[in-house]
Amino acid sequence: MALPTRVLCPGSFDPVTLGHLDIIGRAVALFGDVLVGVGNNSQKNYLFSLDERVDLVREAVVGLPSVQVEPITGLLTQFCADRHINAVVKGLRFGADFDFELQMAHMNHGLSGLETILLPAAAEHVTLSSTMLREVARYGGDVDRYVPAAVRAAIRRKQAAGDLA
Ligand code: ADP
């Protein structure tokens, strides 16, 4: 089977971390063109709005010209079909990620034939999650070393405005 020409890296990116950027960079190395899809789930209580999350990922990938960033609208399989994308690339940290990704991968494959490629998280990022960073940032902790510069500045702005409480 031919390798996909463009792959999707989907996620919430609330906010984008160095762990996400590692997976995006490795997807570029493997496949060339990468679309980063920023999801918006009405059930989730995001720290950053969809526009903010899209802008922060765009700033973080500015040095990677073959990466584009878009919000994901509707069903993931339809979003990919509309863009002729036949594979998603996701990062795998620990067992809980695997259990979730396996279910999701089978559902997506059953719906449209969309393939899922799982890359093991880099050793230095394997325990890093946006959820934990949000918690630490909310209580005023320093998360600088886990996020790109644009996110550092955005968190500082929210902390200064009292928007993290
Ligand atoms: P999170 O689970 O941190 O809230 P997302 O929902 O934005 O993150 O995750 C999008 C994708 O990025 C998922 O495939 C997830 O497994 C992957 N990912 C998240 N954090 C990391 C990390 N530190 N290293 C590798 N992949 C990661």
Fraction of residues in helix = 40-55%
Q: Which percent band covers the strand fraction?
A: 15-25%
Largest sheet entry: 3 strands, parallel
Could you tell me the radius of gyration in angstroms?
16 Å
Structural class assignment: alpha/beta
Task: Explain what you see.
This protein has 165 residues and is of the alpha/beta class. 44% of the residues lie in helices and 18% in strands. The chain is built from six helices and five strands. The protein has helices spanning 18-31, 50-60, 76-82, 95-112, 130-138, 149-161; strands at 6-11, 33-38, 67-71, 87-92, 115-120. The chain has a three-stranded parallel beta sheet with strand order 1-2-3. It has a two-stranded parallel ribbon with strand order 4-5. α1 (18-31) links the parallel β1 and β2 (33-38). The longest helix has 18 residues, at 95-112. The chain starts with 5 loop residues before the first strand and ends with a helix. Adenosine-5'-diphosphate (ADP) is lined by residues 11-13, 17, 19-20, 23, 90-91, 93, 97, 121, 125, 128-131.
List the helices and strands and how they pair.
Blueprint (H helix, E strand, L loop, with lengths): L5 E6 L6 H14 L1 E6 L11 H11 L6 E5 L4 H7 L4 E6 L2 H18 L2 E6 L9 H9 L10 H13 L4
Parallel strand pairs: 1-2, 2-3, 4-5
The protein binds adenosine-5'-diphosphate.
Give a brief outline of the structure.
α1 (18-31) links the parallel β1 and β2. It is built from 6 helices and 5 strands. The strands form 2 sheets. It has a 3-stranded parallel β-sheet. The protein has a two-stranded parallel sheet with strand order 4-5.
